[in-house]
Amino acid sequence: MITTTSKTNNYRQTLWNAAIQVGLPTAMWRLPKQTDKHFLTSFLKNPQQTKIDFEELGAGFAFSPFINPEGKDTYFLKADLHYIFNDTLHDDEGFEEIVSPSSVDPSFIELLNAQRTASKYSFGVGKNFVENSTTKEQFVTEVEAAIKQIEAEKFQKVVLSRAKKTALPSDFEIVTAFDKLCKAYPTAFVSVVSIPSLGIVWMGASPETLVSQDAHGKFRTMALAGTQSAFDAEGNPIKPSEALWRQKEIEEHALVSRYIVNCLKRIRVREFEEEGPKTVIAGNLMHLRMDFTIDTVEINFPQLATVMLELLHPTSAVCGMPKEPARQFILENEQYDREFYSGFLGPVNIQQESHIFVNLRTMKIQDGTATLYAGCGITVDSNPEKEWSETEMKLQTLGRTLFS
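The structure assignment produced for this chain is given below.
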């Protein structure tokens, strides 16, 4: 382990440039309400696809698609090189913690040294692909079809989503964008993941924990559902304590909470703490959230995070209830492949902790083009026009921050 001090934003850019050019899978992240920024690189250019077992895997970063029925399609980026930055110690300097691997990719180190004064990596200017985005007419038709299926009692809820493609600005740069998201969304999990073998980069600011377990064995998950603007009609911020929720959002949140409780019942875990529901702010939006906490040491269940990850994904907050008919409706009706949107991602066994989040408020970067994603929960009380408006608000979470 080596500790140094340097201009962290420049050095993170240098690390990113080198990893991209060598073709190494890479992740950067910052956990909610923290200041440390992490940079992780795997020297395996085609990362392992595996089921996430927190007790068996070493340190690394998990990245799973939405469709992952047996959990075996999760990409695992082994922590061959792991840096921790904290740029709050001085105006432009911070602390770097470098975890060195047993063997270092020589081409990466050679390029890293050569790039200390290199310019920023450019994605190029993309074409305007707005015409290939999900249209309002398409989305409204999908919502109407979902409501009919709910009325026919095929399922209680389904989460429908849409994609919106746009060209990247000519000056778009990953590390700068990452830092902007960290500043704009201090309570979110901010991340960027690059898998060069797939030709993709994903960036996001997720408000939703799927599973986490700390060094003391405390397990956490949450039910996050129900959405409204965090601002009133005049553009003034609404206090969380003054938020008013419609029956539709209350019932939507209750479905997600019941889903988590039912998962715990399936594995006979009854000793858990609940906090909420409460109104929380996530960028320009407010949500209802219920937090669940379990002491795995006290109940002698160290495998809880592994078991719950398999049971929970995809949660009713991104899929629906019951899970299988809702998932089938999504696959048959959405006009695009979600890929990693509404999958999960996060650090595994980093500093003896694992934190996995739902991949929400996210976008894919490919061939100079950004594809942004947003979804909403459809129940029998849904209004197609209002659901479209909800997705518009969610798309603004990244769009306004990154492209303004």
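Interim note for the steering committee: Residues 232 and 238 are 6 Å apart (CA to CA). The first helix runs from residue 8 to 22.
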